[in-house]
Design a protein that fits this description.
Blueprint (H helix, E strand, L loop, with lengths): L7 H14 L5 H19 L8 H20 L12 H6 L7 H27 L9 H24 L8 H10 L4 H17 L4 H22 L4
Amino acid sequence: MDAPVTSIAAAITRMEAMAAALPATDGLACFNRMYLDVTSQVDSQLGQGFFADPAFMTELDVAFANLYFGAADAAGDPASVPLAWRPLVERRALPGIEPVQFALAGMNAHINHDLPVAMVTASTALATAPEAGSHFADYQKVDRLLDAAEQSVRQSFESGAELSVDDHLSAVATLIGNWTINSARDMAWNNCLLLWAVRHDPVTRGLLLDSLAASTAMASRLLLVAV
């Protein structure tokens, strides 16, 4: 297990190392490529005035990345992988699953489960609150970067002429068509507010996190059906 990263630059370096170490067809590698691209874009915008509160966005991005690294580090022992990430880790080498399915299942786990947790972690660390200041506006700005990344992943899969004539590929297109990053992030924001509201109630917080992990895992299993 590697130590948590403390900067976005270190997170990017670790993702680059993972990309070099994993086979391109590995399920984690498929997600890692997409996440590395988005993280690099966020990093490039931090000093350009794109975000109103770059310090908060940096804290959020680091906390967010560490949740992914924790799941990836545990991949050698699937039983110890966080529940939200377990479907992707367990099926990362399963034949019949397309790279786009792995990429979106990873985004599902990272957004629907990890993002609300990271928002609360960052808000606590900086003695602020999710709804304070420009946090929500900056949160929405990331949607633009993620939307472009998602569209790129989908287009790389959907642009092939064989899609219209191959039953397998058409079935995959249907399978992934109902999951979108923007919808997931809208839901993640609401769950972040719920987690924040119950942060001092360990029982309610635990029940909410358990339900969040279970529903996220269920969605990933649906995305990772071999067709």
